[in-house]
Amino acid sequence: MNSTTLLEVNDLHVEVEGREVLKGVSLKIGEGEVHAVFGPNGSGKTTLLGSVMGLGKYRVTKGTILFGGTDITGMSVDERARLGVGMSFQRPPTINGVKLRSLLEICDGGDSAEIEALSEKLNVTPFLDREVNAGLSGGELKRVELLQLLLQKPELVFLDEPESGVDLENMALIGRASASVLGRERPMSACDGCPGTSCRVDVSLKEMKELRYKAGLLITHTGHIMDYVNVDRGHVMMDGRIVCSGNAGDILAEIRRSGYSECFRCLVKEGVRS
Ligand SMILES: Nc1ncnc2c1ncn2[C@@H]1O[C@H](COP(=O)(O)OP(=O)(O)OP(=O)(O)O)[C@@H](O)[C@H]1O
């Protein structure tokens, strides 16, 4: 798929608590493209998403982040969100004293009918009048996070392990909601003739714009989300660097076959590790 670059990360170095976690990450995501990041625990995947989102604990020491051609490296989270960057967290915090309904009204400019309808779809209506995320299970947290993104409608969507903690029945709900956040719910006529329900067909750039595909970057360990969201490109992150990029399905299959041992071999070959 040929498209205009929406996100461009150049040689990004990021420190957390004085320790360098990202050690020169470069990445480009085109309009309407979805990329996946794989990698072992602690390799820096969440740090990459959080740094592009502009979260306070991540300190950029070198490199730039461009969104739609604008340098957002020094912008606040609010400014980035207003420009169209949105993120679902791996472990979202509880917000004491704020009801979920109030937070959603801010996301959606107060359209209560849409809030009610989407809450019903995502099965989170009972939580609307509770404090944000208070006492929610892992799967419930993910559904609430996706609801916020559905209302916020970002142009670039970050999903940090959307399937973690989700049971098999709710995985279909999370998968469909993730596809919806990414603008990938097709009109029924577009699905005619597709086998099964996932409707995985390639679309042209023109069709992609008509369907209002959003761009996305998602982190997955299991790859389950890829049964619901067509991923255009995959990357492997090791020790704060992207060491491999290519077809996401092929990369996942290789990781399932050999773990990350092949990636470690690349790092040694390139002299990054001894
Ligand atoms: N607040 C912090 N203080 C110190 N170190 C931190 C902090 N937050 C993250 N780190 C460290 O940064 C490194 C990268 O963490 P990150 O969460 O980005 O990894 P990840 O690849 O997303 O891991 P996982 O697959 O386990 O979610 C880890 O070694 C982690 O311990």
Describe the structure.
This protein has 274 residues and is of the alpha/beta class. The chain has helices at residues 45-53, 77-83, 100-108, 112-121, 138-152, 168-181, 188-191, 205-210, 248-258, 261-269; strands spanning 5-16, 19-30, 34-38, 58-67, 70-71, 85-88, 95-99, 131-132, 156-160, 215-219, 233-238, 241-246. The chain has a 6-stranded mixed beta sheet, with helices on both faces. Strands 2-1-4-5 form a 4-stranded antiparallel beta sheet. Strands 7-8 form a two-stranded antiparallel ribbon. A hairpin with a 2-residue loop joins strand 1 and strand 2. Helix 5 (138-152) runs parallel beside helix 6 (168-181). It is globular. The structure holds adenosine-5'-triphosphate.
Q: What order do the SSEs take from the amino end to the carboxyl end, as H and E?
A: EEEHEEHEEHHEHEHHHEEEHH
Poorly predicted runs of 5 or more residues? 186-203
- Tell the overall outline: globular
Radius of gyration: 19 Å
Q: Look at the structure and give the CATH class of the largest domain.
A: Alpha Beta
Under the CATH scheme, the architecture of the largest domain is 3-Layer(aba) Sandwich
Strand order of the largest sheet: 6-9-10-3-11-12
Domain module tally:
2
CATH level-four homologous superfamily name of the largest domain: P-loop containing nucleotide triphosphate hydrolases
> Could you give the distance between the termini?
38 Å
The small-molecule ligands in this entry are:
adenosine-5'-triphosphate
Q: Describe the sheet with the most strands.
A: 6 strands, mixed
How many strand units?
A: 12
InterPro entries: AAA+_ATPase, ABC_transporter-like_ATP-bd, ABC_transporter-like_CS, FeS-cluster_ATPase_SufC, P-loop_NTPase
GO molecular function: ATP binding
Organism: Dethiosulfovibrio marinus
Domain ABC transporter: 7-264
